[in-house]
Each structure stands twice: as C-alpha cells, then as structure tokens.
Amino acid sequence: MQISEAMDGEVLILSVQGRLDSNTSKELDEVLVQQIQSRPAVVLDFSSLEYISSAGLRVLLKAAKQGRAGGGKLALCCLSPHVREVFDISGFSSIFSIQNDRAAAVAAVS
Amino acid sequence: MIATESSLELVLRNDLAELDRLAAAVEDFCADQGVPMQAAYHLNLVLDELVTNIVSYGYDEGSGEREIRISLKREPAAVQVGVEDDGRPFNPLEVAQPDVDAPVETRPIGGLGVHFLRTLMDELCYRRENERNKLCFKKPLPQDGAAA
C-alpha cells in the first residue's frame, strides 16, 4: 500500500493505493490519526484502492469518530465498485460522505 | 500449494504477512477456473477476514508457528471452501450479528468479518473435530442466463 499527500486549498488529499487489509491498515491509521487532528479537512481519494477489508474500515471509523470529536471534516471519493460494495454491506456508506470525484469531495468538506 | 484441475490446497502460517500470498493464490485460482471477478473478490475478502481472525485471536501469545489450511474446489455452480485451524474453538455461526445501522458514535468495531461471511457466502457449516476448527461454505456462481 502507498499513501501520497496533496493539498487543495486548505484540504489535505490522501490518495491510497493498493490493498488496505489487516497487514497494511496500521500505516494509514498512523497517518490519519495525526492529520485529522492537525487539519481542518481531509479527503481520502480511493481511486487507486484495489481492496479493503474490515481492518481498513476500522481505521476509517476511528478517524470519523476522531473528526467528529475534534471538528475535523472527512470525505471519501472515487471508490471502485468492489470497494463500494464492502462499504454498502457493512453499513459504512451511511456514516461517511462518499463522493464520485475529488472536486465533489473537496466541496463537501469546504 | 497444490493446484489440480479444479481444486486448490493452501497451507498458511499464522502470520498476517501470509495475506498477500493468500490473495494471490485465490486470484490465480479464480482466474484459472473462470470464476467471475465479483465472486473472486468476495472469496478473497471472506478468506482474508477469517485468516486475520485466526492469526489475531486463535492462538495464545508465543504459541509458535502453526498451520491454517485453506481449500477451494470448483464445482459446476459454486466454489466450495474449507478453512481449518488448530487454534482455540471458534464457531462463527454463533457470533451475534453486528448492528450495521448504528451511528458513528456507537458503531461497534468488531464482528464485520463474520458479517461478510454470512452475507456473501451460502451453506455455512462448522464443526470442532480433533482439536481443530473446521469451517466450510460455498460461493454460488452466476449461471448462464442469470445476471452476472
């Protein structure tokens, strides 16, 4: 898994590439915990995310809880149909702002 | 790893690093056997969750290297799966369903792996035999004429 960072105005964009499973989720957890506290808004761009398991969902849930408590906004974008299905089955689609493209996700947290 | 015409047997160590090997083997098997991509993805997800559970919770600290056995068999209208380990007894069929409608604040953090198993697979069976957990299930495959 690879995580790359970019800025769009005040919004931090984190692009996650590869597989987000119990083996790799810790890495994203470390980045997210730190960034969601220090930034007003974070967008996770999943256009290159091939796979997500419940371990990945767990990291996102933790970030969402942290964001709500601290006022940081979080949105996701660009989920592949496979990844989107995992969100749907687990009921996670209803607890995140999920947008079709990056611009919409940036707008959602701005 | 032994791959015959229509079956695969895979022995994994109790180590999360084995997940990459598991994913690659399942993907290759499904591609060889003409299993549609969505079904292959479901198999991968459920096996990942089960192996993660076994590696994370199945053994006592310092119990050394153990084996988890995965078998996949292509049938005309399904893939039959078996998962076997010698960890502590765990029957996923008895786990309570997580509340997938709970709001963020009270959303439970565990139980999703078993939820995926129940949602995405059919004909689940479990038995504890010779100090081993033996879980089996099926992934039905879309047939010609049915929606993919």
Produce the secondary structure layout:
The complex is a heterodimer of chains A (110) and B (148).
Chain A: E1 2-8, E2 11-20, H1 25-38, E3 41-45, E4 49-52, H2 54-70, E5 73-77, H3 81-90, E6 97-99, H4 102-109
Parallel strand pairs in A: 2-3, 2-4, 3-5, 5-6
Antiparallel strand pairs in A: 1-2
Helix pairs in contact in A: 1-2
Chain B: E1 2-3, E2 7-13, H1 19-32, H2 37-57, E3 67-75, E4 78-85, H3 112-120, E5 122-129, E6 132-140
Helix pairs in contact in B: 1-2, 2-3
Give keywords.
heterodimer, A: alpha/beta, Transcription Regulator spoIIAA, 6 strands, 45% helix, globular, B: 148 residues, Heat Shock Protein 90, 6-stranded antiparallel sheet, 29% strand
Would you write up a description of this structure?
- Chain A is an alpha/beta fold.
- Chain A has one domain: Transcription Regulator spoIIAA (2-Layer Sandwich).
- In chain A, 45% of the residues lie in helices and 31% in strands.
- Chain A has 4 helices and 6 strands, in the order E-E-H-E-E-H-E-H-E-H.
- In chain A, strands 1, 2, 3, 4, 5 and 6 form a 6-stranded mixed sheet that branches.
- In chain A, a hairpin with a 2-residue loop joins strand 1 (2-8) and strand 2.
- In chain A, helix 1 (25-38) runs parallel beside helix 2.
- In chain A, 46% of the residues are buried.
- The A-B interface holds A 19, 21-23, 51, 53-55, 57-58, 61-62, 64-65, 68, 82, 85-86, 89-91, 94-95 and B 16-17, 19-20, 23, 37-38, 41, 44-45, 48-49, 52, 56, 100-105, 107, 109, 112-113, 115-116, 119-120.
